[in-house]
Amino acid sequence: MAKTHQRVGHLYVISGPSGAGKGTVCKELLRTHDVHLSTSMTTRNPRPGEVDGIEYFFVSHEEFEEHIANGDMLEYAKVFDNYYGTPKDAVLRHLKRGRDVILEIDVQGGLQIKKKMPEEAILIFLLPPDLDTLYDRIVGRGTESKADIDRRFNEARNEIKLIGEYDYYVVNGVVADAANDIASIMNAESHRVPERVSELIKLYDE
Ligand code: 5GP
Predict the structure, then answer these.
(1) Where does residue 115 rank: exposed (0-12), middle (13-18), buried (19+ CB within 10 A)?
(2) In this structure, what DSSP letter does residue 19 have?
(3) Which of 41, 85, 164, 178 could form a disulfide with 172 if both were Cys (CB 3.0 to 4.6 A apart)?
(4) Which residues have C-beta within 8 Å of that of residue 154, sequence separation ≥ 6?
């Protein structure tokens, strides 16, 4: 029987400041594409309407630190005084099966992934159209205090300075357009000639 190309999934990191619209854009992407969105673990409290195991796995500080000690996390970072991290097992399982995986994580986490998995990881930075829109989006969420809003806004401006470490950027003005742009990047990446090109050549060499 003819051998066919067996691909390993790509690991897409989507970062961007709080208010860039990562959550909304990823949801839109999931509606139209067969990708696995990793569920992160966090020590922050659930916001109204958030459900354990859906938006995040909500755990205590002690539990999170136990997972770090056990080596269960692919990456983790402290963001706004809380731990956030990516549980390793589910991500690796999907990648091995050839499924693309998205991590919606902050820049600190994105850089850890780039270092750990340089061959698999593709880093995409989501930007707001401008700073006024960013501020309005952070305020519009309505779940944060004034101090939190200011902190997130300042943090956002610092995060944007690290965009040079990323492979692609997408501006989120209209959600559907931003999701399409990410889909185009994913499509192009799935046609990239792989590092281990010999495996691809072998398939066509009798
Ligand atoms: P929020 O509290 O608004 O849900 O998230 C705060 C920040 O933490 C966002 O920038 C979000 O992307 C980031 N974040 C969420 N999950 C993870 C994760 O697993 N790892 C890292 N490093 N950051 C995360």
Answers:
(1) exposed
(2) T
(3) 178
(4) none
Lookup result for tokens 């989006």: 137
Distance CA 30, CA 34 (A): 7
CB of 112 closer than 6 A to ligand 1? no
- For ligand 1, whether the C-beta of 79 sits within 6 Å is yes
Task: Name the residue at shortest CA distance from atom 16 of ligand 1.
Answer: 105
Asked if 200 and 191 touch (Cβ cutoff 8 Å), the reply is: no
| Protein residue whose Cα sits closest to atom 1 of ligand 1 | 18
- Residue whose Cα lies nearest atom 19 of ligand 1: it is 85
Please state, as a whole number, how many other Cβ atoms lie within 10 Å of the Cβ of residue 75: 24
143 alpha carbon to ligand 1 midpoint, in Å? 16
183 is written with which tokens?
Answer: 């889909």
